[in-house]
Amino acid sequence: AVRRLEERVADLAGMGVDHLEGLVGVRYMPNQFFSLHHDGDHRPTTVFLYLNDLPWGDEGETRFPILGLKIAPRKGAAVMWSNVGPDGKGDPRVIHHAVPPKSSVKYGVNCFL
C-alpha cells in the first residue's frame, strides 16, 4: 500500500519514485501548529495529503500568506506546490504554515520530492 502511494505521488509530481524522500506522517492536536516555513529549494516539489476531514469552522488549514491561500483539510485530498521558481531558487511565495485545529485532530502526510 505504501509503495503504491509513493508511486501515485511521484506520478502526480511528474518525477520518479527515486526522487521521493521518505513519507512523513503528521498529527496536529487541537491548538497545535507548524510555524511559518519554506520546505527548501533542495525539495523542488511538495505534496501534502490530507487524511481526515475536520468539522466546519475548526480551521486546521494549510495557509500560504503571501499568496493569500488557505487549503482546508478534506479526507483524500492533496495539495501540491513547487518550492522553486524557474531559476531553480527557492520561491518565497510558497512560505506556509499549518493553522492549528480548534478542537479536532488533523492527520496528514508530507511528501517531498
Task: Please characterize this protein's 3D structure.
- This protein is mostly beta strands.
- It is 11% helix and 32% strand.
- The chain has one helix and eight strands.
- A hairpin with a 4-residue loop joins strand 4 (62-64) and strand 5 (69-71).
- The longest helix has 12 residues, at 2-13.
- It is globular, with a radius of gyration of 14 Å.
- The relative contact order is 0.34.
- The mean pLDDT is 97.
List the helices and strands and how they pair.
Layout: H1 2-13, E1 24-28, E2 34-37, E3 45-50, E4 62-64, E5 69-71, E6 78-82, E7 96-98, E8 106-112
Antiparallel strand pairs: 1-8, 2-7, 3-6, 3-8, 4-5, 4-7
Summary, kept brief:
With 113 residues, the chain is mostly beta strands. The protein is built from 1 helix and 8 strands; from the N terminus they run αββββββββ. β4 (62-64) and β5 (69-71) form a beta hairpin.
